[in-house]
Amino acid sequence: MARSDARLIRFAAVAAAVLLTIFILSKGSTTTYVPSTSNNNNQQSSNAAPVDPALAAAQKEKQEKSEEKTKAKTPAVGSGGKVAATFVSLARNQDLWSLIGSIRSVEDRFNRQFKHDWVFLNDEPFTEEFKRVTSALVSGNTKYGLIPKEHWSFPEWIDLEKAAATREEMKKNKIIYGDSISYRHMCRYESGFFYRHELLQDYEYYWRVEPDVKIYCDIDYDIFQWMKDNNKQYGFTISLHEYAATIETLWQETRTFIKEHPEYLPADNMMDFVSDDGGFSYNLCHFWSNFEIGNLNFWRGKAYSDYFEHLDKAGGFFYERWGDAPVHSIAAALFLPRDQVHYFPDVGYYHVPFHNCPIDDKFRLEHKCMCNPKDDFTFRGYSCGQKFHTVNKLEKPSNWQDYS
Ligand SMILES: Nc1nc2c(ncn2[C@@H]2O[C@H](COP(=O)(O)OP(=O)(O)OP(=O)(O)O)[C@@H](O)[C@H]2O)c(=O)[nH]1
Ligand SMILES: [Mg+2]
């Protein structure tokens, strides 16, 4: 082989290596998950620092570069006209495998186009595996938060013996989750604390996503932007009647509260959705909160903050088994003007055992829905969908009776 040939081959090999490196770097990962180095208690820290100082310096440099890339790639939330919005999932580490189906569904049907962030919250530190797997699926930034202990424990005014007696009684009566402590912390957290988590402070709108849910149809508009542009504060897909035994005194406490604070009820509130007798009793209708798209500022506002505090002091999260769904729903119905609460007929959705499936054939085909309209729950007897349409004078689809 001639010397010039050998040089040429060496040159070609070096060039190929450089090109390959550039290719790998430029491809990168579309996720912006960077293990946090924050010391803050509420956010998770990264792996332990490496012992070798040279390795530590190299890692630090890599991390800084990576963070720069994050900043460059994803503008600050709310800047440049993009609405400050995030998905939020409360989950345990063992929920990972049932949650990823939900994430994939939301990403495929909606978020891959819009790349909104996703906040994950847990009462225990998330595992590296949880972070690695979820961040690979989300097209926006992913953030992982630890819930402060005081938001996930018995408040000091709760009588623990009384709470234990309730759990025993509910267990005997076979009330679902009736004997669970963690379920109660979860309901109280979703009712009164998730929107206060520091990772949510950057955001105005949220969409709650639970494990094992499905989005049935393409969503080709930015639903958060739509909420903002149309001045909607709360959006739902499924509504139904609550299990009365879990909320025996919730309405009584609500009546006491609104008597003390009539100023929190706008004139055009939706009392007629939650009460059939002008507020004397609760008809059990509520929005199913495993799906929620809402404005965080509504929960952060004075009316809801005072309402939650009243309920929390009354103790029904522990002495009964109040769910976040009736609590949120009663608040949305009473403290918002009715036109700020929105039903999404177009968001095909499933959480066991109910479906929201568009009953308009043309819509379903155009949006590539994968659900059977016969399963749609909206106009069935146990649903509160008919009531929502009636009290708000919304036109029902022409074929609704075929699905009632
Ligand atoms: N971190 C944490 N998350 C929880 C806990 N319990 C429930 N969750 C989450 O809270 C949400 C509601 O819990 P689910 O178990 O789905 O409650 P549910 O929807 O009433 O009941 P299912 O019909 O079983 O789905 C889900 O996102 C769960 O992942 C818990 O103890 N810790
Ligand atoms: Mg669930």
UniProtKB/TrEMBL annotation:
Its keywords, alphabetically, are: Glycosyltransferase, Signal-anchor, Transferase, Transmembrane
Record's keyword annotation contains Transmembrane? yes
Annotated region described as Disordered, given as residue ranges? 56-77
Decide whether keyword Transmembrane is in the record.
yes
Subcellular locations according to the entry:
Membrane
Primary enzyme class = transferase
Q: How does it sit in the membrane?
A: Single-pass type II membrane protein
Report the Pfam families cross-referenced here.
Answer: Glyco_transf_15
GO annotation terms (biological process)? cell wall mannoprotein biosynthetic process; protein N-linked glycosylation; protein O-linked glycosylation
Q: Which domain of life is it from?
A: Eukaryota
SUPFAM superfamilies, per database record: Nucleotide-diphospho-sugar transferases
Q: Which PANTHER family match?
A: ALPHA-1,2 MANNOSYLTRANSFERASE KTR1
- Name recorded for this polypeptide: Glycolipid 2-alpha-mannosyltransferase
Q: Which organism is it from?
A: Wickerhamomyces ciferrii (strain ATCC 14091 / BCRC 22168 / CBS 111 / JCM 3599 / NBRC 0793 / NRRL Y-1031 F-60-10)
